[in-house]
Amino acid sequence: MALTNRAMMKSNIGKQNEVISDCNRVLEINPNDSSAIYARGEANYLLGKYKKAISDLTKHLKLMPFDVDAYNLRADASLKLENYNDAVLDYSRAIQLDSNNAKAFYGRASSNYMLDQNLEAINYYTKYLKLVPFDANAYQMRAEAKYALENFNDAILDYSRAIQLDSNNAKAFYGRACSNYVLEKNEVAIEDYTKNILLNPDNEKSYLYRGISKLELDSCEASIRDLSKVISLNPKSDEAYFYIGRAKIKMKDYKSAIIDFNKALKINPINNGARNYKKIALEMLRL
After folding, report:
1. What is the 3 state secondary structure string of 54-116?
2. What is the number of domains present in the chain?
């Protein structure tokens, strides 16, 4: 018992390898000491040794089958290993044992999301938010699930709530921008892409979609500036060259547009958009 208590104290101050050593000594004397098995499992988890953590927690749960924390922690380890189905099972068991287990609701929602089970994810994020109503990340993740289901207006509401709670939530600005972009609300989308760029200046996707949105509004020169920034961040972006070419067609700079379409096709020979618009540019040169 003294060694087990010492191990728990060391865990509290981050000495996980010493925790494991102490627990091993306890388990040499009593292989069924559930507290030592759990402490070792927790230490392995904190050290990133997730398979060992799962092994210990499984042993612990055979001895203590109603330990909510052990189910949660084993689920967390499965989540780290991307074993999402196993994580769902353990988070579900934790919820059965404790219907107000916010951690399990969030973990299960995240696992469902990773499995593309978006309706389930929304359901469990909603349950979590009833218990923890001011978690910006949970609103943002519920919005991501709604976006995946093409519920763009509902997604915007959740992204907006996430931003209200955390004005530096770059992912929420990006997600809300993409939702407005899909809804063809280009001016609003541009505002949020700009806010995302201020927080994450190397996000090439924000420059790309802001550039496309500007193109839709016939702001061709501004569009080209954004799309050129994409190329500086990612020289292999055939999309950026393609949309620069489209902007130049709008500006009636057909020769230069053809050069950009050729660059797009060199990067991605199956970019049919670039091939089709190149034909349009060639036809315009014949007029």
Report:
1. HHHHHHHHHHCCCCHHHHHHHHHHHHHCCCHHHHHHHHHHHHHHCCCCHHHHHHHHHHHHHCC
2. 1
